[in-house]
Amino acid sequence: MFYWILLALAIVAEITGTLSLKWASQGDSPAGFILMMVMISLSYILLAFSVKKIALGVAYAMWEGVGIVLITLFSVLLFNESLSVNKIIGLVILLSGIALIKTGTRQQKAQEVQHGV
């Protein structure tokens, strides 16, 4: 459970860092760039710790996929970006892919336990 919390924190840090890209590009202050660098770095560090117990493919898919979904939604809410039907379909496909990767990893572990691997 601890490693899933680390992954969730990595996702939050990635979202914060990526959203601050927009903030940094709109202002003259270096604060947005500093926040972006700190949060993206923290995100990778937390992701690295989370893969100690979570399969790399699952952790990375969730980190990147959930991040993309939430960044897209926050971009619509915070920056008035558009959310077209194509974007919605893409996000649904992305989430479906993450679910399939997660399910496939769980099935593989169950088979390994059955076969004593």
Automatic annotation (TrEMBL):
Membrane topology: Multi-pass membrane protein
One of the record's GO cellular component terms: plasma membrane
The keyword Cell inner membrane appears for this protein: yes
GO MF terms, alphabetically ordered: amino-acid betaine transmembrane transporter activity; antiporter activity; choline transmembrane transporter activity
UniProtKB keywords: Cell inner membrane, Cell membrane, Membrane, Transmembrane, Transmembrane helix, Transport
Chain segments annotated as coiled-coil in the UniProt record: none
Predominant localisation class: membrane
Any GO BP annotation: spermidine transmembrane transport
Spans through the membrane: 30-51, 58-79, 85-101
Entry's family note: Belongs to the drug/metabolite transporter (DMT) superfamily. Small multidrug resistance (SMR) (TC 2.A.7.1) family.
Subunit structure: Forms a complex with MdtI.
Name this protein carries in UniProt: Spermidine export protein MdtJ
Organism: Franconibacter pulveris
Upper taxonomic lineage: Bacteria, Pseudomonadati, Pseudomonadota, Gammaproteobacteria, Enterobacterales
